Amino acid sequence: MEKLYFKTRAFGPFVLSLQDIKPHLLVPNLSEAELVKSVREISAKFTVKRDHINDYVREEKMVSAYASFYLPTNIPKLHFLLSKLSEEVLEDLIHRPLIDSGCGPGTFSLGWSLLFEKVPPEIVAIDSSRLMLDQAERILQGFFPKINLKTTQKFNEKKSNSVLLFGHSINEMGIHKAQDQIMMIDPEYVLWIEPGTSDLFKDLIKLRENLLESYEILYPCPSSAKCPSQWCHQVLRTSHNLEIERLSQLVSLDRKTLPINTAVFKRKRIANKSLNNAVITRYIKETKFSFEYEVCFLENGQNKNVSIEIYKKQLSKDAEKFFKNSDVGERIEFEVEKVIGEKLRVLLK
Q1: 296 and 194 in one domain?
Q2: Backbone phi, then psi, for 83, in 5-degree steps?
Q3: In the prediction, which pLDDT does 6 show?
Q4: pLDDT tens, residue by residue, 158-181
Q5: Verdict on whether the full-model pTM lies above 0.85
Q6: Interatomic CA distance for residues 55 and 61, integer angstroms
Q7: Spatial distance between the Cα atoms of 118 and 95, rounded to a whole number of angstroms
Q8: Is residue 117 classed exposed, middle or buried when 0-12, 13-18 and 19+ CB atoms within 10 A define those classes?
């Protein structure tokens, strides 16, 4: 269900096409062949050629290709994360300045402004690449001409009332630079959306532990206790505009199933409302009578991974349909009905 503070239409109308983006690109007339070649080169730098990961931000054509493909396919990740937060938190977020660290072409700043009923009171877009900042400015002001936008390569100000968002940037800058930036800005909220890889998780878990000295985690963990996982991530299953789907096929990149690591921290502590407030961390199986998942939840002051069994007889038709299509990363609440070995049979609240 869409949160009240999102725009009242379903997310679908805000799925962007190439035609939506092209007028605002630094190079708006790229051919399909040029797009395919450039996106393949960029993808290689993200994977097998990471020593050259920043090369693509130095050419207008490459920046435009990146925006054409990755901007529309990454925005749904922000919707995924925001949709997991309470209305109380969403109401607080929309009234705060947004600081978009490692903003790229303005992907998540644009997504933030498209998804909420109102644009944020201020957006500060930070990126080490001047070309990316130029692209972000053109895109954001193209969609929202009156937006209060500041673009900068460095931001050295304290802004304690803000929301600091890292969108696919911690994996490039490293956790030490990210933590320095958090300490300098001292934001009310810290959010990140990063690739859901096991290697990156090892770094993010260290950053999580450091942040918990001053922040409470709101998502995905059920509490701020120590993480029990060796690798925790979420998986977004989504779809895109037909033009983007075609481009995905041509470059042989799956953008429908997206492993991500997301997190939301708030400086002021918020009490947990339920000891059995859990997050689905792994789909196990569906049987004729039940669904089985691995979840992470709080027990005796510690986060714990456990297998649960949800009997279908307790579910409405809509609820059963929900669990057939549910994402890893969904939040649920339950009561334990029966302990079966190391598995819990649960009743949903």
Answers
A1: no
A2: -70, -10
A3: 52
A4: 999 999 999 999 999 999 999 999
A5: no
A6: 12
A7: 9
A8: exposed
